[in-house]
């Protein structure tokens, strides 16, 4: 299996914790954002594989610089994003060549916010994922969801 680096925003939330658990179980290197030191400490206790270098602040776009530094400018292979507006744009810029972006936030999707086409010069894919529809048996097939899953 190839080495995969993942950025999961909002790691201390329910979706974030589940995504971290899945990604770690698949051998991915996980970076995550949190809003404060307590949430970071909680995640470090729950996932001891996550060291200080794996954490960035979710309250501003400085996580972009952190990811660039930690990946030596390469970026990550997968972003699980729940941030909006300028933070969504910063998240997109965290993608490596051939990366996959999973957008689970509804704000930018429902407001039809512009994304910008330049990101696609890195041959990335962008998936809008409505979590409330993922398990709805009347929408799509299980196989469709597995195509864009992490790792």
Automatic annotation (TrEMBL):
Q: What is this protein called?
A: PKS_ER domain-containing protein
Stretches assigned to the Enoyl reductase (ER) domain: 1-147
Q: Which InterPro entries does this chain map to?
A: ADH-like_C (IPR013149), ER (IPR020843), NAD(P)-bd_dom_sf (IPR036291), PKS_NRPS_Biosynth_Enz (IPR050091)
Q: Which organism is it from?
A: Gongylonema pulchrum
Q: Which Gene3D superfamilies match?
A: Medium-chain alcohol dehydrogenases, catalytic domain
Q: Which GO terms describe its molecular function?
A: fatty acid synthase activity; oxidoreductase activity
Tell whether Aminoacyl-tRNA synthetase is among the UniProt keywords: no
Parts of the chain that traverse the membrane? none
Keywords tagged on the record: Fatty acid biosynthesis, Fatty acid metabolism, Lipid biosynthesis, Lipid metabolism, Multifunctional enzyme, NADP, Oxidoreductase, Phosphopantetheine, Phosphoprotein, Transferase
What the entry lists under SMART domains is as follows: PKS_ER (SM00829)
Q: Which residues form the signal peptide?
A: none
SUPFAM superfamilies per UniProt: NAD(P)-binding Rossmann-fold domains
Please name the Pfam families in this protein's record: ADH_zinc_N
Q: What is one GO biological process annotated to this record? A: fatty acid biosynthetic process
């Amino acid at each position: 299996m190839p080495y995969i680096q993942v950025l999961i925003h909002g790691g201390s939330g329910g979706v974030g914790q589940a995504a971290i658990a899945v990604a770690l179980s698949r051998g991915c290197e996980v970076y995550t954002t949190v809003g404060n030191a307590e949430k970071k400490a909680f995640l470090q206790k729950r996932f001891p594989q996550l060291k200080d270098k794996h954490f960035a602040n979710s309250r501003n776009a400085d996580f972009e610089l952190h990811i660039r530094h930690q990946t030596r400018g390469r970026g990550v292979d997968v972003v699980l994003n729940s941030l909006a507006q300028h933070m969504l744009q910063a998240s997109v810029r965290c993608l490596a060549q051939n990366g996959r972006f999973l957008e689970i936030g509804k704000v930018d999707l429902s407001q039809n916010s512009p994304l910008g086409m330049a990101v696609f010069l890195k041959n990335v894919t962008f998936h809008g994922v409505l979590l409330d529809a993922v398990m709805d048996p009347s929408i799509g097939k299980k196989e469709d969801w597995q195509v864009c899953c992490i790792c």
